[in-house]
């Protein structure tokens, strides 16, 4: 049976198609969060939690702290996960920091039945971050992500020029799959880091002309490290000794810290730009 294609030749259809193309020629934004990296081989949140809790990175103190915090979340709906525990731990750290700053003799806090010092909490946070890093720093397959970005950036019709402006990716995940997919698809993008394999935070990269995409890592990134004298991230090549000294400062932030850090870069800048993307003037 022959397929009737006469509708495609009608004026109303062509007008509608042109309007759709015009609409899509303007800015596009994509929000990517939990689950969007599972197709590449990265774990879902519950799997990440289980693997991080079993990590050899965790000392006996860290395991006891996590066990106590996990117990306090019993019955949580939705089910609690590693970022909840890390957020809780950061809250405890804030209490010890405040006590130290006020000159109180004992700054220790009780988690479960055991008291822990400020130093022990910092060590636990660093170990948990490294455990998370180990779980997601694995070989992954970026094929689906590459197909996804190519589909977003290709023209709607053969022979037509591509849309003007860039596609904005609002990424909640720590992994670098979107950045990798864009680069391997030969698409020019900015993620706020200037440089190459090693780089520094420079939000003006988002304002460059002729970008195909902008990537806003709203929760930080597994390849960001915090400079000792600044809250802004560096990207440090894995073969550099300096990278080994930065492991305690991996910039993947728990939820409570994310909101406190919104007053500082990089998060203040990233969230402001995300707001403008979602609600353009």
Write the layout of secondary structure elements.
Layout: H1 11-24, E1 28-32, H2 45-53, H3 60-72, H4 82-101, E2 109-111, E3 114-116, H5 118-136, H6 143-153, E4 167-171, H7 177-184, E5 189-190, E6 193-195, E7 199-201, E8 213-217, E9 220-226, E10 233-235, H8 241-245, E11 250-252, H9 255-260, H10 267-278
Parallel strand pairs: 1-4, 4-8, 5-8
Antiparallel strand pairs: 2-3, 6-7, 7-10, 9-10, 9-11
Your description of this structure?
With 281 residues, the protein is α/β, with parallel strands linked by helices. The protein folds into two domains: 29-42 and 140-278, no CATH class; 45-136, no CATH class. Helices cover 42% and strands 15% of the residues. The strands form three sheets. A five-stranded antiparallel β-sheet has the order 6-7-10-9-11, with helices on one face. It has a four-stranded parallel β-sheet with strand order 1-4-8-5, with helices on both faces. Strand 2 and strand 3 form a beta hairpin. The longest helix has 20 residues, at 82-101.
Please state the average pLDDT score: 85
As a percent range, the share of strand residues is 5-15%
List the secondary-structure elements in sequence, H or E: HEHHHEEHHEHEEEEEEHEHH
Enumerate the spans where pLDDT stays under 50 for 5 or more consecutive residues: none
Q: Which structural class best describes the helix and strand composition? A: alpha/beta
> Given the C-alpha coordinates, what overall shape results?
elongated
**What does the oligomeric state look like here?**
single chain
Number of domains: 2
What is the distance, rounded to the nearest whole angstrom, between the alpha carbons of the first and last residues? Answer: 51 Å
Q: Number of helix segments?
A: 10
Main sheet: strand order: 6-7-10-9-11
Count of beta strands: 11
Helix content: 40-55%
Radius of gyration: 23 Å
Largest sheet: 5 strands, antiparallel
Pfam family, one: SIR2_2
